[in-house]
Amino acid sequence: MTLDIVQMVLITVLAAATPLILAGIGELVAERSGVLNLGVEGMMIFGAAVSFAVAVQTGSTFLGALGGAAAGLLLAALFGILTVGLAANQVASGLSLTILGLGLSGLVGANYVGMKRDPAPHLSLPGLTDLPGLGRLVFGQDAFVYTAVALVVAVSWFLWRTRAGLTLRAIGDDHVATHALGLKVRKVRFLSVLFGGACAGLGGAYLALAYTPFWSPGMTAGRGWIALALVVFASWRPLRVAAGALLFGGATVLQLHAQAAGLGLPGQLLSALPYLATILALVLLSLGQRHGGSLAPASLGRVFTPSR
Amino acid sequence: MRLDLVPRTRRSPVLDILSPALAFVAAVLIGGIAVAALGVSPGDAFVTYFVTPLSEVWSLQEIALKAAPLALIATGLAFCYRANLWNIGAEGQFVVGGLAGGWVGVATHGMGGFTLWILPAMLIAGTLAGAAYAMIPAVLKVRLGVSEILTSLMLVYVAQLLLDYMVRGPLRDPAGYNFPQSVGFDPAARLPYLMEGETLHAGVVVAFLAVVLATVVLARTLFGFEVRVVGASPRAARFAGFSDARLTLAVFAISGGAAGLAGIVEVAGKIGQLQPEISPGYGFTAIIVAFLGRLSPPGILIAAIVIALTTIGGEGAQIDLKLPLDLTRAFQGLLLGLVLGADVFAGYHVRLVPGGPSGRPVS
User: Fold this and answer.
1) CB contact under 8 A, A100 and B337
2) Considering the domain boundaries, does residue B362 fall inside one?
3) Range of B274's domain?
4) How many domains in chain B?
5) Separation between Cα atoms, residue A146 and residue A142, nearest integer Å
6) B330/A268 Cβ within 8 A
7) What pLDDT, in 10s, does the model give residues B192-238?
């Protein structure tokens, strides 16, 4: 009995963490290659809107999820052309992407407000899913959750166990030296940005197709920004992004329960907790790192223009 | 094919002015296509967005009233962005400024006797509160190296929730039938109208004076010079002995103060009481305005008017042509992106070169 309650809590924590893992892991790859894309929120919400529209039109959750990833990819391509191709300021370009994505999501989603779909189907393995205590947690999730977990493992393996991953990290640390070595700095960065966009779009799709599951304007509610903070908090390491997202998901669930239980605290304070927790986490992290120097990719956010 | 960017020895002054204009034209063209896709004649939409608002007295006033906070906030942000510091939490500083100033208005409600001090006190309280709120990310940045981008943004949500709490709780009008709003301010706590029977209030003058002041400070003072040097060449600034930390605190205080002032101007001018929401996203739109205006105060003034025009036009288009407001937002985001992209032509010679990868790097 109590085991089942623990499992229920863990399942909700994992659900709250999944969009953050998806968006965070994508942004991590982009940042590891040296590009700071502040447009995660915009890509995420555009992905949410498009995924829901596609899913309703086609009746397929899978096509919806693909549509969401494609939407994020499209916005990321715009960002890549601006910052990687035309050497525009990354911070400002990312903000423009967020605003554009919020606007576009409203346009796409306008006809779908108030509609509801069945949530994405959950895995069901006879025997395994019914295991008491952990069956549903391990064997009863939807495809988004498994994709998120697989992405964390895959990105971790790719960045530290493959030659291409080493190249990507090297480019993020020193674009001048890697360019001199003949590595294709701009191509790698552009692809990394695209990957980040697709992941953010998928994160949005999870919100619209599995987590809620409906479309409402502004439904990402700052999750894209929290994913950005998670990457910093995780010192640009995939497994720590996942751990941070779980911590964060836990805090979200705790806040919801506290609100339901009515602890006498103002609801606004509880709603502000995730944002305050993010700031606190960033502060604690930098306190812990005071003597170690920065762990950020050394070229992060710096403009690169090859010549001749 | 590859894209080559060769840095110009000097930024082209002609393209510096021309490129935002070209970006604007491109955004209007793309917007026209989007409008056509939504089944509305692009010509009609253009007239509704950009011509109709300019043809009536009330809508001209609305443009000025929207442009004022945008120009005020963006001018403050220009100091930050010029110094390569990224305060993107102006929306929160705006809200906190409106809340603090509005608090003075609520506290002095019904006060008799000498009341001339109330309005200045509200403006000062709003400015100081905005500046103080901006000090949180600034101090965290200076002392601990925490990214100011994320902290300033997170504090926006906190500020909005704080305002919500105060308006529903301690500052709610006890005689207001439980509506989440404060008492209406006394006339002594309202910005005066500029013309009898119209909506234009003195906040527009406040914003204009701030832009003039900022122009002078940036162009003619040592502090303005420091801001420009740090932005253009951090190394040179260090050799010159300019203090990073001091400058960070200063530009955050300026941008936060400007946003806070804009907040209380909105509350004491247009709204006249505290509500759960006092900003239609001015703090975020001002970021577009700052870049559209090329981070120079006179440019920002023009950009604020253009963006205000599209916003008012967007409201008109929603009513007359059934075009969604999100179209305006998408247009503004697109415009900022195009402005940033077009900027490259002022700083670089851009060439499309056939053939393989580029060789020797110059950074």
Assistant:
1) yes
2) no
3) 67-305
4) 1
5) 7
6) no
7) 888 877 888 888 999 999 999 999 998 888 888 888 888 777 778 87
Q: What percent of chain A has pLDDT over 70?
A: 96
Q: Is residue B5 part of a domain?
A: no
Confidence of residue A56 (pLDDT cuts 50, 70, 90): very high
Partner residue opposite A282 with nearest CB, options B150, B328, B340: B150
Cβ distance A88 to B344 less than 8 Å, yes or no, reads yes
Show which of residues 322-341 on chain B sit within 8 Å of chain A, judged by CB atoms.
Answer: 324-334, 336-337, 340-341
Residue of B nearest to A177 (CA): B361
Domains of chain A: 2-119+139-288 (1.10.3470)
